[in-house]
Structures are given as C-alpha cells and as structure tokens.
Write a structure and sequence with these properties.
The complex is a heterotrimer. Chain A is mostly helical. In chain A, 74% of the residues lie in helices and 2% in strands. In chain A, strand 1 and strand 2 form a beta hairpin. In chain A, helix 1 runs antiparallel to helix 2 and helix 4 packs across helix 8. The N terminus of chain A is likely disordered. Chain B is an alpha/beta fold. Chain B folds into two domains: 229 residues, 3-Layer(aba) Sandwich (D-Maltodextrin-Binding Protein, domain 2); 196 residues, D-Maltodextrin-Binding Protein, domain 2, CATH 3.40.190. Helix content of chain B is 48%, strand content 13%. The longest helix of chain B is centred in the first third of the chain and has 31 residues. By secondary structure, chain C is mainly alpha-helical. Chain C is globular. Classes of the chains: A mainly alpha, B alpha/beta, C mainly alpha. Chains in contact: A-B, A-C, B-C. The interface between A and C is large, with 139 and 122 residues.
C-alpha cells in the first residue's frame, strides 16, 4: 500500500519539477521536500506509534494504578513511585545494573574495536576468523547460557578446573555473590563482541585509506595513526556503539541472567530489568512493574539527551 | 504563504496527536471491559485447556503416552455431547518466567481450564478468576482426596483446584558413590548432623556430597519449607494466620543451609546443570534433595544405574516431615463457559465414577508415574505399573505419609523467605538476623493483606 | 562521556598494524611478512577461544541423554540419534520454515521502511525534523518486558493474535535500524543528490537509484542483525501464539524441556541445527559487505 502512495507522490513531484527549473523557488522546493519526507516517514512512524509509543503510554498510565493482573485496576496516584523510593530491592537492582553497565560497555567498546582492527587487516582466512568471532551472537541465549553453565560448573567445569590448577580451589563462578556478576559480564561481552566488531568494521571501512598513507609518509607510528585518524573519524560509530550498548545492557541481559543465575546468588545478579520482569510476570504486580519501567525509560531518555547534547546530535560533522 | 502552511501543519500535527490519544483511550477502555465482554462468544466455541502435555510436540513414547491421556479425556467428554475442550500445549509452561498465562489473564484473555502450581494458587484465587468446583463434586469424591493434597487448593471449605498428583521430596543417593566411600544402607543419615557430616565425607574430586537447591525461585522455597516444619516451625502459623518465621525452628533451618555450604558439604550451584541423572551417572553428586519425579527420569535415561532414596533427616527432637508438590486443574471463572469447564474438570479428575478413577490410575500409575492424590487411585494401582518399582513403593509407604502440601504464599512472602535463604546459604549472612528481617517484612505485608488464608 | 568516546585505550596487540612499508606495495602485497603471521596467529587464537564454549553445544548434540550434562568435552559414544530425533520425531523443519518466513519478511520490510525513514531524516530538510528524529530515537529506549502486556492488548485489538501478521508486523518497527542508517546517510557527501536534483529527479527516484545502491553494505549488515534477532526471538512468539502451525524455532527448542526433565541432548542438537542458517547467512553476507564496500567506491 505504502509503495503505491509513495510512488504516486514521487511521480507528481517529478512532474512538477520537470515543469521548469528556473521557476522553482526555494519555497516550492521546501514544500516538495516536506511532502516527500512525510511519505518517507509514514510507515515507520505509524508502526512505531502503534506498536511502541501507544503501549508505552499505556504502560505509563498503568504505573499509576494498582493492578492484580486479573482485571482489577485501582488508581493510587504516585503510590507505586513512593513504594519504589522505599524499596531496598529496587535500589539494589539499580546498583547492580550500574555495575553491570560499567563492566560491560567499556569492555565491549575496547574488545569490539580491537577485534575490528584485527579482522580489518589483510591477512589470510580473515573471513573465517571474522565468522568465528561472530558465532556467539548467532546462538540463542538460552543455549549460550547453558553451555557456560557446563564450563563454569563447580568442581567439574573446565574453567573451575583451570582455576583449581592455578591454586584457586573450589572457585564457584556462579555461586559466589562476589564473582557471579563479573561472570555474567564476561559472558555478555563474549556474546555481544561479534556484533560490535561488525559495527566498528563498517565504521573503519568509511575512513579513507589515503589518510593513513599520508600519515605513514609523515612518519606517524601505529599508535599515533590510531590516535590521530582512527579514533576521531570513528566518532559517529563510537557514539552509536556506546548508545546501543548502553541500551542493550540496561534493557537486555534478561535471558542470560535467568538461565545462569536466576538473579542469585543472594540477589547479586538481580538486574533492574530482571526485577521488572519478576514483578510483572512472576508476581503479577503489573502497575508497579510499569512504574519502574517508566522510570527506566525516563532515565535513559535523559541520558541519551545528554549524549546528544555533548555530541551535537551524534553527528560530529565538525562544521 | 509560508505562514499558512505552518498553520495547517500545526493543526494536522495536533490532529494526529488527538487521534493517537483517542486511540489509546479506546484501547484502554476496550482493555478495561475485556473481562466482561469476554464470555460473549459463539456458543459452539471449544473451551481451551492450557497445559504442558498435549498435544505432544514430540514422538517420544513417554511424552506421547502423557499427551494421549489428555486427548482421551477430551474425546470422551466431547463424545458425551458436551461442549468440546481443546488441548493447548504451551511451550515452557512450567517455567516461572513464562509470559503467556500472565499476559493472557492481564488482558482478559485467559484460558478456560489450566494447570496451576501451588505457589501461584493464591494469586489467582485472590484475583477472583478461580471457579468453585465444590458444587460439582460429591462428598464421597471430596473425601477420596488425601487431605494434604486438597488443603492448599481449598478456601473456607470450598475446593478451587483438583490436584493430579502429589510429589513428595526426599533425598536421592547414588549407590556407587556410597560404595566407593565404603558406606552401606545402614549408614544413611537420619539427623541433620549426620547428613552434613556425610556430605563433607562424600565431597571430593568432581563430586558434591550433598545437593540442596541453590537458585532463588519458588522451587527453592518449596525444598526449604520441610526443614522448617521438621522443628515444629512455620513461615505463617496456619491457624492464627500470624507470621512465625523468627521462631527457633526457622532460624535453625536457615543456619543448617548456611552450614551446609559453609562447611563444604553442599554445593553453591547445582551439579550437571541441575540434572540428577547426569550428576549420578557421571559421579558429580552423592546425595540430592529432590522429588519423586526423578524416579521416572532415572528409569528413562539411566535405567541400570543403582540409586536409592531416604526420608529427609530431621533435627534433634524433630519430626520427619516433607513437602508435597504437584499441579492442579483449575477453571477460569471468566472463561467462555465456566460451568461446563467445571463439570469437565470434575468428571475427569474428581469423580468417584469408575472412569475417573481408572483415568487417574492410568495417569499416576502408567503415563506419568507419580503419587496419586486420591485413595481410590492408590488402591486401584496397587503395586502395578510404575509402582512395581520398590523406590516408588517406598515413596508411597514411608515418605508420602509424612508430607504436607506446598504452601501457597503470595509473592511478597515468597520473596522475603527467598532472600533469607539466599543470604544465609550463599552470602554467609547470620541466620537470626535474616529470619528477623523476613519476619518483619511478612508482618508488615500481612497487616494489609486481604485474601485467602495463608497455608 | 567524551572521555569514554575517545580515551579508551585500544588493545595493543590488535591495534598495531604492520610497520610502515612502501606505499606502492600496499595493495598487492601477498608476502608472508612476520607481522602478518603474528596477526594471523593472533586472529586464529582469538577465534578459537571465542568458539571454544560452543564446542560443548556441538559435542553435546552427539551425546546420550545420560551423558549430555557431563562436563567432559568429547562424547564417550557419539551418536546421531539426537539429530534423527529432531528431524523425524518433531516437526522441526516446519519450525525452521516458519522462522525463516517470518524473519525474512520482517527483515525485508524493516530494511525498506527504515532506509526510507532514515533517508528523510538525514537528507531532506523540513521543519520538525530533529523533533521527529528524537521521538523515533526515544522509542529505542523502550524494551519489550516493559510494554509486553500493553503491546499484547494492542495486537489483540487489531485481531492479530495467533497469526503470521501478529508475529511479523509488530517486530518490523525498531528504531535501531533507522538510527544506524541515518548516521550512515548523514556521512554521505552532499554532492551525491545534487546532480540528480538538477536533472529533475524526484526524491523517490534519488532514494531508489542513488541512496539505496550506496546503502548495500550497511543494509547487508543490518539484514544479518535483523534476521538474527528475529530468528532467535522467543518471548514475543511465545506470548501471542499457541497454534502449533505457527511455532517458531526457538519455541520448538523449548518444547524439548519438560517440567523436570530437560532433554538437553535434543535441545543441543536442535540449537546446532538452528544456528546453521544464521551462520551461513553471516558468512555469505560478510563477503557481500566487503565486496560492496569495494564497489561503492567511496572508501
């Protein structure tokens, strides 16, 4: 349907322009652009409105109700927000989410970029190496989590045995509250690094090779070239990676935590999104879960707005 | 000209916004009334029965037999000219993280009949979606159920769920592991102290001596309650409806969990990813607190591996008590036709007719292989089918009689107890402090709690 | 924030390219220099370390039910029974076809809609553009668990429960793709469209014959991501379907887990089978990406 309407408009626009370039004023061109933009934006805007924005508005509304999950809605104003403020488990999950964020995002950035730089080189079998590095991202998270459970199992897992041979007897990667979150961080990075490698690879390909050659002729070393060319020119990609990694870390990680630790041991891996999920689907506290979810979206909005402000819209046009 | 355009665009933008708000409002209204309009369906609509058995997505003979049992039940029902029932298999139905049922009920779209675990019962009852099945049952049939199987599905003497089975907990032990350590059946522990001592002794190399459940979940709480009950304690006193989790019995049970892990007798995570069969056959575990369902798992996946079961050891001066799990049939009071659905559930699961008893005997004795919830069914099975196995007989004769139904505590109480278990067991917290923290959380919750009694 | 952007130290090993060489030999160099060998070894070691955990998945798919949960890597008595079971006793091919159809449809429609929207946001000038972009961007921050139940209500109101449309349509709309494509289009030189515009081409024509061809590399990358994300989707299909004919691969895998007994040997065989199509697609597309980058001529 949209295809037909779009091409019809496009056809009309074309006919109008063909009428005579000289007479086309700035205003007419602006109008043309505006009309084109409307049709170009229509399908996605409509879809996002119906399937994301409307549900999100509903969720925000739900946040002001006490809901039992069986059709009883009781308006309680900011009751859920008051409850949140005094809920130690909510705050604990916020703290854990921040730790998780601080652990995962920089690691993903460094590892993703490092791998991209490596597989960008002209070395034999680079396609196979790239594929190997990307493989984890292909596997379903439940199976990924299960495989790591084998490797991390107390006493029997290969990593536990390696630790034992290094003198760390009876290490429990998933059963020690002090280790479990770190373990989840490592598995997350392992799982996602291939994705960010590809993103960085695309960014690196956009950097003109002549810059490097010029720098080389000027006698710049590898590190200097990286500092002076790669990092600055990679800023749009870096912006994208940091934004998306943050979003995916805050809103994701659910399946992994469910299978690996169930939020334990002793609550040490109860991420905020896990807490929301638990409240909504295990406890039927839909109103409370919606309120927490709304706060989460608000905080991320504020954070992204800050990112946009700092990076001038993520554009880095340098002009 | 520009100004006019601007104006028109602003108006249209506002229109779009208004349209969006109106749309959201309509949706919200549709949602709010969903529960009421739901029953108005075409009368010939089949009722839906959500569960995890039928129609089986696999051809494994055991799974097919369980599926067939359900399909036979709905066929007989439809053949009698009743409103037909559709079996709807829900993947990962027993996974507590499953979103399917919660989403369906939240939007007024719940199934007519579904299976429910004890931990969820009260939430659905308090939500007003469970149908009272008592009017459809004869007193004789009610009396046929074991009191412990019905207790947690009953509110004020009315029955809201029909259990398909009773699943007692015990400790499974790996006979080769015991033999390697020079132990025989006479060395099986009967006290907590002996159990932990043996756990330490059997731990070594890849092997964990004693496995208590470790992941925070309703299931872990279920496995923990009997240790509290053994010392005469409880989370909530069922008669007084007062929290008693700061009692000595609860504190000593928590402390035992802390000791078990702290002393190295028990593991911090489950060996072999939680698979008892794999753990025993590979020599990863010696003793494991788990339920009767493992008998079937061993029979299917390692029929020749020798193992045994024993009753949960008790603390000094304590009673041998265990907990009974198991799923029950419940009927959605806001379904298409709650009356037909209730009659269907009672006819298959809760009638004294020969058909109902035979069907239950086939379920517990053959298809599923677990403890019946009704006396007549136990008698009908005798020592046939799954009960030819001496382990099953031991469960039935020695362990089941010490059982008490899994409590139906609502989420807040579950969570308070779960936090205490986790903190003491895995973070080395003090048992008394944690018990008191849980107690005060439960106290403040119960001050405003309204709903079915907590048993 | 800016510190994180630029101040992250690169990995020394991976970041150090070959030492300076004469410029003229750069493209044709096929010699095995020492640094090239070092990089190759490094790449292979990292690659192997990365796939190491997945060896358990593959080896487990050849193990028996009793052995599958053992921590040893190699099966003591390798068997093909799990694969046979997955293909003969379970309608697994049907699940794969469902997933393939759904994921492919979503991917194609999403790439089309997103590239259109991104083109407008990046290269057309109109009032309110930044506002619309920010609004679209903000939907990125909404995650499924937060809106699962309201979305279900919306989808049910549209009558899409238990249908292919219900599996496909809501999954198309995701701001990630719009965002990434917009970043890409913003970076294209302004002269691109100018010639076409002077020739009187319509915006639709520019989009189709100038922008889309240039987008090939990034669209291939996005295609892989979209396909993958939908191939591995679990929660949404679980929530809105119960018809076994609509069952997707990940739900199919979940049916191997029963209440207490997980048939992990079947799960692993099924997961291995399910991973193959996506792996092949990546392998194929990553060559595409590299090729089209070369051909596009804006390197």
């Amino acid at each position: 349907m949209s295809a037909v309407t779009v091409s019809r408009t496009a056809g009309r626009a074309r006919a109008g322009t063909a009428g005579g370039n000289a007479s086309v004023g700035k205003a007419a061109q602006e109008r043309r652009q505006r009309r084109a933009a409307f049709w170009f934006l229509l399908p996605d805007s409509l879809g996002l409105l119906v399937f994301v924005a409307v549900p999100m508005v509903l969720a925000v509304v739900l946040g002001f109700f006490r809901i039992d999950g069986f059709g009883s809605f009781q308006f309680i104003g900011v009751g859920n927000y008051v409850r949140m403020a005094g809920d130690p488990q909510f705050w604990s999950s916020v703290r854990i989410t921040l730790l998780y964020l601080v652990g995962v995002v920089p690691a993903i950035f460094v590892v993703g970029l490092g791998l991209a730089l490596l597989v960008q080189q002209k070395i034999p079998f680079v396609g196979a190496i790239r594929s190997m590095l990307f493989v984890p991202y292909v596997i379903s998270l439940v199976v990924v989590a299960m495989v790591w459970e084998f490797m991390l199992g107390d006493r029997t897992g290969v990593l536990s045995r390696v630790a034992a041979s290094l003198g760390f007897e009876n290490v429990s990667f998933l059963g020690e509250p002090s280790l479990a979150l770190g373990t989840v961080v490592v598995v997350t990075v392992w799982f996602q690094m291939g994705y960010y490698m590809v993103i960085f690879l695309a960014g690196l390909q956009d950097i003109p090779g002549e810059y490097y050659e010029a720098a080389r002729i000027d006698g710049a070393g590898a590190w200097q070239r990286f500092r002076a060319i790669t990092l600055p020119l990679l800023r749009p990609t870096s912006f994208f990676v940091i934004i998306t990694a943050t979003v995916s870390v805050i809103t994701g990680g659910l399946d992994l935590v469910f299978v690996l630790t169930g939020g334990g041991p002793a609550g040490s891996t109860t991420l905020l999104i896990f807490y929301i999920y638990e409240q909504a689907f295990l406890f039927g506290e839909l109103g409370y879960a919606a309120a927490i979810g709304s706060v989460l979206v608000l905080v991320m909005l504020a954070w992204s707005a800050l990112m946009f402000a700092v990076t001038r819209g993520g554009r880095f046009d340098n002009d | 000209m520009n100004g006019r355009h601007l104006n028109r665009r602003q108006v249209s933008r506002r229109d779009v916004l208004r349209l969006g708000v109106a749309g959201a409002g309509t949706l919200a209204a549709a949602w709010a009334t969903a529960g009421c309009t739901r029953a108005v369906g075409a009368p010939a609509d089949a009722m839906q029965f959500w569960q995890m058995y039928a129609p089986a997505p696999q051809q494994d003979p055991n799974i097919v037999a369980q599926s067939q049992w359900f399909l036979d039940g709905i066929r007989r029902w439809a053949a009698a000219g009743e409103r037909p029932v559709d079996m709807v298999y829900i993947p990962a139905y027993t996974d507590p993280t499953n979103t399917r049922l919660a989403t369906a009920f939240a939007s007024g779209d719940g199934p007519d009949i579904f299976l429910i675990s004890p931990g969820d019962f009260l939430r659905y009852y308090n939500g007003g979606v469970l149908t009272d099945l008592t009017p459809y049952m004869s007193q004789e049939a009610i009396d046929d159920f074991y009191p412990d199987a019905l207790a947690t599905r009953t509110v004020d003497g009315r029955i809201y769920g029909l259990p398909m089975e009773q699943e007692p907990l015990a400790i499974f032990y790996d006979i080769p592991a015991f033999e390697e350590a020079g132990l025989a059946e006479g060395d099986l522990p009967t006290t907590w102290e002996e159990m932990l001592e043996l756990g330490r002794r059997l731990t070594g190399g890849p092997r964990t001596g004693l496995v208590l459940d470790t992941t925070p979940s309703y299931y872990q709480n279920f496995t923990f309650y009997p240790w509290v009950w053994q010392g005469g304690g409880d989370v909530v006193d069922p008669r007084a409806q007062r929290p008693t989790f700061d009692s000595d019995a609860a504190v000593q049970a928590l402390a035992m969990y802390g000791d078990a892990v702290g002393s190295g007798a028990a593991a911090r995570t489950l060996p072999a990813g939680g698979d008892l069969v794999g753990a025993f056959t590979n020599g990863y575990a010696a003793m494991w607190q788990t339920g009767v369902w493992q008998v079937e798992a061993m029979r299917q996946n390692a029929p020749d591996h020798p193992y045994g079961v024993f009753r949960l050891p008790a603390p000094p001066g304590g009673e041998p008590v265990t907990a009974l799990g198991g799923w029950a049939w419940v009927v959605n009071s806001r379904g298409r036709d709650p009356e037909s659905a209730a009659r269907f559930a009672v006819e298959v699961m809760g009638s004294t007719s020969k058909e109902s008893v035979d069907a239950a005997a086939r379920w517990n004795g053959v298809a599923k292989g677990n403890m019946p919830a009704r006396r007549s069914v136990t008698e009908a099975i005798g020592n046939s089918g799954a009960f030819e196995n001496p382990v099953m007989q031991r469960f039935r004769d020695e362990i089941l009689p010490t059982g008490r139904g899994e409590p139906r505590y609502p989420p807040v109480i579950y969570k308070a107890v779960s936090n205490a278990i986790q903190n003491v067991m895995l973070a080395g917290a003090d048992a008394l402090v944690e018990a008191e923290a849980a107690q005060s959380a439960i106290e403040s919750y119960m001050e405003t709690y309204e709903g079915g009694p907590l048993v | 924030m800016t510190d994180t952007l630029t101040g992250t130290p690169p990995r020394d090993d991976a970041a150090a390219p070959a030492p300076p060489r004469p410029v003229c030999t750069r493209r044709t160099d096929r010699r095995w220099t020492r640094s090239k060998v070092a990089l190759l070894v490094l790449g292979i070691v990292l690659g192997l370390l990365t796939i190491f955990p997945l060896l358990w998945m593959v080896s487990g798919s050849f193990k028996t039910a009793a052995e599958v949960n053992s921590a040893t890597l190699l099966p003591s008595a390798p068997t093909l029974d799990n694969y046979r079971y997955v293909f003969t006793e379970v309608p697994f091919l049907r699940y794969m076809l469902n997933s393939f159809f759904i994921s492919a449809t979503i991917t194609v429609l999403a790439l089309w809609f997103h590239s259109m929207a991104a083109y407008a946001l990046a290269r057309l000038k109109f009032r309110g553009r930044d506002t619309i972009f920010l609004l679209i961007f903000s939907t990125l921050l909404v995650s499924l668990p937060v809106i699962l139940i309201p979305t279900f209500v919306v989808v049910r109101a549209l009558g899409l429960v238990d249908s292919y449309a219900g599996l496909i349509v809501p999954a198309i709309f995701n701001a990630f793709g719009i965002f990434l494509l917009r970043q890409f289009y913003v970076s294209l030189p302004a002269e691109l469209e100018e010639a076409a515009l002077v020739d009187g081409a319509s915006y639709w024509r520019i989009y189709r014959s100038v922008i889309l061809p240039l987008s090939k590399p990034i669209l291939s990358a996005l295609a892989v991501f979209f396909f993958l994300a939908n191939w591995n989707a679990f929660v949404w299909p679980l929530t809105i379907t119960s018809d076994p004919d609509l069952r997707v691969v990940q739900l199919g895998i979940a049916t191997f887990q029963q209440q207490y007994v997980g048939d992990w040997n079947y799960v692993l065989a099924a997961a291995t089978v399910a991973a193959l199509p996506t792996l092949l697609i990546f392998f194929f597309f990553q060559r595409q990406i590299v090729e089209s980058i070369k051909n596009a001529g804006f390197k």
